[in-house]
Amino acid sequence: MKIGALTEVFPGENRVAMTPDSATQLAKLGHSSVIQAGAGAKAGFSDAAYAAAGVEVLADAKAVIAAADVIVKVRGPDAAELATLQDGQTLISFFWPAQNAELLEAAAKKNLTIVAMDMVPRISRAQKMDALSSMANIAGYRAVIEAGNNFGRFFTGQVTAAGKVPPAKVLIVGAGVAGLAAIGTSVSLGAIVHAFDVRPEVAEQIESMGANFVFLEFEQTQDGAATGGYAAPSSPEFREKQLAKFRELAPEMDIVITTALIPGRPAPKLWTEDMVKMMKPGSVIIDLAAERGGNCDLTVPDQKIVTDNGVTIVGYTDFPSRMATQASTLYSTNIRHMLTDLTPKKDGVIAHNMEDDVIRGATAAHLGAVTYPPPPPKIAAIAAAKPKEKAKELTPEERRAKEVAEFKAQTRNQVGLLAIGGGLMLLAGLYAPASFMSHFIVFVLAVFVGFQVIWNVSHSLHTPLMAVTNAISSIIILGALMQIGSGSFLVIILAALSVFMAGINIFGGFMVTRRMLAMFQKS
Fold first, then answer.
1. For a Cys staple, 498 with which of 281, 286, 322, 480, CB 3.0–4.6 Å?
2. Is 58 within 8 Å of 29 (Cβ atoms)?
3. Do residues 206 and 195 lie in contact, with contact meaning Cβ atoms separated by under 8 Å?
4. Under-70 pLDDT residues of the chain
């Protein structure tokens, strides 16, 4: 099939849904590609680069739509664009079906298949197609760069001959993909970073990146798993506690980056006008939720304003588009992975499997019917993990009592095993010949010694040590070699199998050890 990419008509949109590299990968799936002339120019991809990658460059959107079976875009189509698509075509783009019900009905009437990249379920298998996360990652990074551009001081603290420079204090509200990207960038620039999220399970992620988790004392916990990896709406009581904490932090913060969004709802107001007034002159607020109304009361979408007390509020809605080359590369890779799942046989034929969780979740219209909303995925969302309970600290007396109890239990187990083993050996000795018992006792002792050697080794050393131990214990190959000259055909077969398996154990053991040791060598 032919995959066609169109020039984005949305004002200020610089991204493109296909890059020369992604077109090369699509060719390996059996697809050919066409693109509208100039579609990648704003993202730094020339028509010549597409032609060199085997993409046919067509003059206008009409020619691309006429030639292609699948249309790929970044922004969802408007009514005029949708009307130009041909019946039966597949459109892959951001679509936001919850906010565009009428457009979705029109698409179903035209028998279009709509694959909404914003509806890819947040499950582990679909991470490679998660375009929302890809764009949020870029937005979080760019937000910190934009904050630095509008902040009049260093991020990192310095002590120089000209004086001491304190580090900037940054607050990240919302620790999703965008928030974590902003945390990583701010920490790497040397700022003191605080981060807040209503989902307690992200506290460890925040702290592992070098930021401080803003802890909110509240009995009820929010569970992000209920909304597929996003934060759930907060109760009024929780919101009041949250705002009180932000008012406490507002006078100290130099930079505030808000990223909080709830699917299908306007952005929650988390940074109120009175908090802005508490901030120091020269402070900066970057509102990544500006497109959905903003987390700050004073945010103006697509504009940068300065308040009366000197606080700069940036409400740009096109952060990924401001890094168009990087954003286009990641987004086109997401689409390529989606087309990989849609082309399971890699024969250039799309098989729209509505039994597949990922494909079904992202499909908003198919075969003339609206298929939104999709059923919940059969497997749990990525963010469904519950926070780990902290281990209870034991007093010295409790620790001592626990050690004594464990020692007594271990002693009882060992004595019991020895008694049972001794009884079984005595029972066998009553009926078995002396020659068998002498060999059997040696065998039992060998098993016991080997068990003790392996069991008491640290888990981190198990693989290399067990490889060597297995190789050494394969001395049993000598016994097999001694029996291979037996006059019994059955004994010869068993001895040959023993030699074969023991040989694998010897050489395999040393090979595994060698590979393990090589992991710790620089060259």
1. 480
2. no
3. yes
4. 218-233, 263-264, 379-391, 453-475, 522-523
- For residues 82 and 78, give the distance between their C-alpha atoms in angstroms, rounded to a whole number: 6
* pLDDT 10s digits, 257-293: 999 987 667 889 999 999 999 999 999 999 999 988 9
Please give the span between the terminal C-alpha atoms of the chain, in angstroms, as a whole number: 46
For the question of residue 254 being annotated catalytic, the response is no
Residue of 133, 222, 242, 332 with catalytic role: 133
Known active-site residue 122: yes
Specify the pTM. Answer: 0.71
Only one residue has tokens 């709509």, namely: 114
User: Annotated catalytic residue: which of 15, 36, 75, 122?
Assistant: 122
Instruction: Answer yes or no: 46 catalytic.
Output: no
Residue 464 has a pLDDT of 61
How many CA atoms does the CB half-sphere of 136 hold within 13 Å?
20
User: Measured between alpha carbons, how far is 375 from 377 in angstroms, rounded to an integer?
Assistant: 6
Q: How many CB atoms lie within 10 A of CB 433?
A: 8
Q: Region of 310 please: left (phi>0), alpha (psi -120 to 50) or beta.
A: left
Determine whether 230 is an active site residue: yes
Q: CA torsion angle for 425, 430, 432, 433 (degrees, to 10)?
A: 120
Q: How far apart are CA 343 and CA 350, in angstroms?
A: 5
Catalytic residue among 127, 188, 205, 483: 127
Q: Which long-range contacts (CB under 8 A, 24 or more apart) does 340-346 make?
A: 340/29, 341/129, 342/115, 343/29, 343/30, 343/31, 346/28, 346/29, 346/30
Q: Which of 15, 36, 75, 130 is catalytic?
A: 130
